[in-house]
Amino acid sequence: MANSIEIDVLHLDDGESRVRPEKTVCEFLLRLIVNDQQITMFRCSPDNLEAMVTGFLASEGIVRGKTDIERLEIDIKSGTAFVNTAQRNGRKKHGENPSAAPGMYRKTPEEKMISDVCLTRAQVLSLYRRFQENSILHRETNAAHSAALCDSGEMIVYAEDIGRHNAVDRAIGGSIMAGISPSGKMLLTSCRVSSDIVTKAATVGIPVLISKSAPTDRGVELAREFGMTLIGFVYRSGMNVYAGQERIDIQS
Which CATH code is given to the segment(s) 119-249? Predict the structure, then answer.
């Protein structure tokens, strides 16, 4: 399914009007069923839904990785993703399947992030330039968020979606489906870094989060509690480091 379509719009500019084609993003409604329980519904871009669902399951602490997912099927006609997860012992409420419990494997601030990742300013700026060059859907429609998983200056997975959380989940899920653990990697995103984005990254072991946008106060607070590096307002020659500056070589 396509992520964008052309529609005719009435364009008004400087006292003139004309009908012209414009690209806009496509929106798809997907229901997620895990072990026969409805977990959530996504309003998302319609392509590569398996990666988005996989990333959501991992970043929300429902599974630890690909091997915990025994079945993942997408029924496009009904707009439903069906997932079965491996049975594991863990926290559960009465009558609840433990492998379908959101947050079961979610990281808490007491579990500090340990990582030997080290970045220079030049590396951050170079990565983010390449990241923005890949934002094709956003450039075409001005209506999509982007996310990418990176390692040692190289982009591993790039993803776009109409939703910022979905874009992050797609990047995480794409790496997991490719057999690459997101743990120890860097997450680049175009979106505001709120506490839930920080928690998603921490849950799958991502120690560095970089955005062109700003974080919220709780996002900064959580990043510091987790021991993560949080960089925002990345632009052509600069950036703000909100947490974890020990991973940045500010002289390079």
Answer: 3.40.140.10
